[in-house]
Amino acid sequence: MDPKHQRMALNDGHFIPVLGLGTYAPEEVPKSKAEEATKIAIDAGYRHIDAAYLYQNEVEVGLAIRSKIADGTVKREDIFYTSKLWSTFHRPEMVRSNLEKSLKNLQLDYVDLYIIHFPVSMKPGEEIFPTDENGKVMLDMVDLCATWEAMEKCKDEGLAKSIGVSNFNRRQLEMILNKPGLKYKPVCNQVECHPYLNQRKLLEFCKSKDIVLVAYSALGSHRDPKWVDQSAPVLLEDPVICDLAKKHKRTPAQIALRYQLQRGVVVLAKSFTEKRIKENMQVFQFQLSSEDMNVLDGLNRNLRYADAEFAAGHPNYPFSDEY
Questions:
Q1: 146 CB contacts (<8 Å, ≥6 apart)?
Q2: Which overall architecture, per CATH, does domain 7-301 show?
Q3: pTM to 2 decimals?
Q4: Contact call for residues 141 and 147 (beta carbons, < 8 A)
Q5: 250 and 284 in contact (C-beta within 8 Å)?
Q6: What are the residue boundaries of the NADP-dependent oxidoreductase domain, all occurrences included (predicted)?
Q7: What are φ and ψ of residue 288, in 5° steps?
Q8: CA nearest 55: which of 81, 22, 20?
Q9: pLDDT for 126-172, tens place per residue?
Q10: Cross-strand bridge partners of residue 111
Q11: Which of 66, 14, 20 is closest to 47 using CA atoms?
Q12: Residues 178-210, buried b or exposed e (16+ Cβ, 10 A)?
């Protein structure tokens, strides 16, 4: 990690800011909130914005980025923007079209990072979650190595500066890394990661392959009832985290974010509240001791908030493996 610039080198020579703003919100949240939050975040010093075709708010996020470029706050090259290939576009001939849709929504010429959002493919079509007459999600079988080759072409064509994956397990990462004729390694694997699911083994594996681990749901989860078991414990109410917050005169969220940074993880903080967006940026102003880190490591209970149960029967379902 390069502390001066608060960024980390990727294996293709580009750099990723170690703290990013997450922009996912449940459907009932107005899309305009993502625009507001992105503007607030850029003004507060965030340079890494994480979004996705799936979130259906790239028009608003793009508007925010362009307005901050127009008013002179940032230049385009100051912003690190991530988008994601959705599961209905895994067929190699469709990969570029999904990226082009995102770029059109954003009104940008390129994304800094384009990642395969989830390894399970779904039936192509207009629906984000295509379902059959019984309401069951319709899955598809696509060779992810072929998808990856189409991702490589997007990088070659300058539509994405870097390419990576999300929600891949070790076996799936190895499948890409061992692919005959591999041109570019994934620069990152973006996965759910927080003190209750610290991903220690996957992190060690990624580091050994020079792949950056990016943590989503780092503050626990948005607790959207569509995805998350409502009886799951609330991470930021954990007494251990709250005690550390008191000790350091920080918020529980700052403790959870700092934990990731000190492990060499790039961390995404999702908030649409101005106060919290600004507070989360203060994560660079303090340090946890090795004793604090050990205490936080001890909270791991392999609790996954987002288990994507709808895809559990698919051969590429990533969460059945240990890591």
A1: 91, 92
A2: Alpha-Beta Barrel (3.20)
A3: 0.96
A4: no
A5: no
A6: 19-300
A7: -95, 145
A8: 22
A9: 899 999 999 999 999 999 999 999 999 999 999 999 999 999 999 99
A10: 160
A11: 20
A12: ebeeeebbbbbbbbbbbbbbbbeebbebbeeee
Q: Where are the domains of the chain?
A: 7-301
Give the integer Cα–Cα distance in Å for 6 and 64.
22
Instruction: Tell me whether residue 117 is annotated as binding.
Output: yes
- In this structure, the dihedral spanned by the alpha carbons of residues 96, 49, 58 and 102, taken in order and rounded to 10 degrees, is -10
Q: What is the pLDDT of residues 50-86, one digit of tens each?
A: 999 999 999 999 999 999 999 999 999 999 999 999 9
Among all residues, which ones are annotated catalytic?
Answer: 55
Cβ neighbourhood burial of 13 (10 Å; 0-12, 13-18, 19+): exposed
Q: Residue for token digits 């493919």? A: 121
Where do the H-state alpha helices sit in the chain?
32-44, 58-70, 92-106, 144-156, 170-177, 200-208, 239-248, 252-262, 274-280, 290-297
Q: Whats the size of the chain, residue-wise? A: 323
* Radius of gyration of the CA atoms of the chain, in A: 19
Closest-CA residue to 235 (of 259, 213, 212) = 259
- Alpha-carbon gap, residue 16 to 12, rounded angstroms: 11
Helix axes 290-297, 239-248, angle to 10 degrees: 160
